[in-house]
Amino acid sequence: MLTNYVVLDFTPDTIANEYTVGRFADVFAPGAVNNTNRFLDYDGNNTINQDDAKIAVGKIASRVNRLLKPFRQDPNIDLVVMHTPGLTSAADPGAGERKLAEGQEAADENVYVVYIGDTRPEPDLPDLGIAHQAFAGENNEFYGYVFAGGVKSHLASGNYRWKPQAKLTSVDFTNEVAFTVAHELGHLWGLGHLIDVDSTPGNAFSPDNYHHVMNTPKYANPAAARFLNDSTHRMEIGNATTGA
Fold this sequence. Notes:
5 helices; two-stranded antiparallel sheet; single chain; 17% strand; alpha/beta
């Protein structure tokens, strides 16, 4: 059976002519907890540092595993989810790029990499993440990006729809990053954004308050979102690089 590997790389590789998004660990700049970063205090000691980043990696990987449960339990899909545990080394380990190259060469496995870094490298990119959406019939063994620094800014802005800023915790940061990871992975697999059934070609819009991983992020609560069997809404057809 074909094995499908999903690699969550928290130390994004330096790839020629590609985006440079920084390390996930850079999101956790050392400092005291305040109202705009309280959700990064994973160990509850009122200080943000690399210890929190290390805990966050495990929590996010675990949450992504839960979101991908329908695929992991499908007897026709041999899905393996992996992640890079190291964060503090300044040297680029190249883990995701190496695994992707192995998968592209192998006839018995597919590899999909999601680089989880800090910030979007260009102002015109989506705030939270980006990935090429596979065309119908395309085996898109490639990589996407998640901008965890963008998630941090979104939660810190006070515009987070699903909970008052004062009540945000590390669980909310975990859920939002994991949602974005699964969302961008869905694009690599050919899944598009959901389109409301009442949309028209000249006025396409997403279903509001509908908690599907492939819905536009602001319309889906990451704490409740799942991959759903959806017969009510349409999905965009893959024809471009798509983001969250």
